[in-house]
Amino acid sequence: MPQFLARFNRVSGNIAGSGLWKGLLTAMIELGAFIGALNQGWIADKYSRKYSIFAAVCIFTLGSILQTAAIDYSMLVIARLIGGVGVGMLSM
Fold first, then answer.
1. What is the model's pTM?
2. pLDDT tens digit sequence for 60-79
3. Closest-CA residue to 60 (of 33, 87, 35)
4. Cα separation of 90 and 15, whole Å?
5. Contacts of 46 (CB under 8 A, 6+ apart)
């Protein structure tokens, strides 16, 4: 984990306010899941459940790829939001 903390130094314990940045990083997946769950109903009605699940898997996979490839904190936060949308859509 030292490599992670070196790359994303906002969440290391040595910086003041790191709790806020850790909380934001954690909360983004829940916010994305909330957004995805709210939208899954009408997407499934309009395009069918089969295609909406396929779209959710694609969104989740994109979020996972972006999280893995994140080079800075803001990219990681946005990638977690995208992944969260996929999680929320799949939870319906």
1. 0.90
2. 999 999 999 999 999 999 99
3. 87
4. 36
5. none
